[in-house]
Please model this.
Amino acid sequence: KQEVTQIPAALSVPEGENLVLNCSFTDSAIYNLQWFRQDPGKGLTSLLLIQSSQREQTSGRLNASLDKSSGRSTLYIAASQPGDSATYLCAAYSGGGADGLTFGKGTHLIIQP
Amino acid sequence: NAGVTQTPKFQVLKTGQSMTLQCAQDMNHNSMYWYRQDPGMGLRLIYYSASEGTTDKGEVPNGYNVSRLNKREFSLRLESAAPSQTSVYFCASSPRDRVLGSPLHFGNGTRLTVT
Model:
């Protein structure tokens, strides 16, 4: 069974720093991997989706990479801002219907002004 | 653009009571899902509907039933609520099979407490 791990569980950095959030998965046979953002009391918002054939995806200050062979994905946030404070979750899709989507438990990010 | 709308936002039930959580999406998506989110457990799939007229069990279906009323609406019913069902419930939708890489769109959740 696929397992998705996000380390660290929490991270606090000063505003303006570039930072990397990590996501690892145990079964490398994935179709795609998705990064989400969750604000307190809200649902998840999809940030980036990387297909298994892709190495990375970019959206504004966000860049997500995927290395299937090592079972790792990273989310790079450039020039962090207080508005980036949220919980970031990754989810790996291994196929077989909706059951095949496995979420990590998230990294709670705080950007200090 | 409303996206995925869940009602109610908050609910308190007593053990044994029943209720239905409502979800509607206005994006003409084929697939809809119900998840629960618990501290330390992450998101877990309860039921899903790949298309109108079909429903399937997810990881934690016991104690729940679902109805895909039409393409827009997917409801989750608790027939006899238990304290273990205290959680935040999220409805989500996607335009097509996730193998093709369509992202999930989530509602803002229903916070349910069972006493």
Q: What stands out?
A: The first strand of chain A starts at residue 4 and ends at 5. Chain A has a mean pLDDT of 94. Residues 70 and 82 of chain A are 32 Å apart (CA to CA).
